[in-house]
Each structure stands twice: as C-alpha cells, then as structure tokens.
Design a protein that fits this description.
With 123 residues, the chain is mainly alpha-helical. Among the domains are: 33 residues; 31 residues, no CATH class. Helices cover 53% and strands 6% of the residues. The chain is built from 4 helices and 2 strands. The protein has a two-stranded antiparallel ribbon. Strand 1 and strand 2 form a beta hairpin. The longest helix has 23 residues. The chain is elongated and about 105 Å long.
Length: 123
C-alpha cells in the first residue's frame, strides 16, 4: 500500500460553468452595445417645422397674456392682461393684513377657520 498522494482532478463542471458565465457576460455586453440606436436624426425640413410651431406657440401665449377677451359670456368669465390682473390683486390686498390674505387663500391654515368638534353624546 502506497501512501503517496493521488493527483486531484479539476472538476470539469466548474470549468464548463465558468466558461458558460463568461459567454453569457459576453452576450450581454454585445446586446447592450448594439441595442437601441436612439432617435433617428431629423431632417432640416422637420427642424424648421418645429421651430415655426414654437414661434407660433409663443405668439399665441403672448397674445393671451397681454389682451382682453371674453372667455364665457354665460358665466361672465373674461380674460384680462396679466399686468392688469396683478395690479388689481395688489390693490385689493393692499389694505388687508397678510394674515387675512393667507386665511382667505388657505382657510384651513388658520385655527379659527375650522369649527371646534362637537362633543358626541354618551349613551
């Protein structure tokens, strides 16, 4: 009987598993790098169309902010220029205290705005 150590064989499954994981990682890298190329480049005509639409939108916005108009006659709803609206708000709230303005805008912010709870009747 010999007591010499027997050579250990490296498990074939471990090598195959390591190579499989390496191959899986390589496939993932290829998929990520060649995935979605992003949006298609726009041509000059589309760029000009979008710029024209943006200019038109800005023009409409400026018109709405700076002109008078009737929104709905049945509810007496009218549009006024933003500068005039700010003047009216400042004039309306100039003589009131800031606390009164806050309580008007946010009624739940002041303790006196909420009524005290009524005690429930015990049976």
């Amino acid at each position: 009987m010999s007591l010499s150590p027997q050579p250990r064989h490296f498990p074939l499954r471990l090598i195959a598993g390591g190579l499989g994981l390496l191959a899986l990682f390589a496939v993932a890298v290829v998929v990520v790098r060649t995935g979605d190329p992003g949006p298609a480049p726009e041509d000059a005509a589309r760029v000009q169309e979008r710029r024209t639409a943006l200019v038109e939108l800005h023009k409409k916005d400026a018109e709405r902010l700076n002109t008078y108009a009737v929104v709905d006659r049945t509810t007496d709803s009218f549009q006024i220029p933003i500068a005039r609206a700010m003047e009216l708000v400042v004039r309306e709230y100039a003589s009131t205290s800031p606390r009164a303005v806050v309580s008007e805008v946010i009624p739940a912010a002041t303790p006196e705005a909420t009524p005290p709870p009524t005690p429930s009747a015990a049976p």
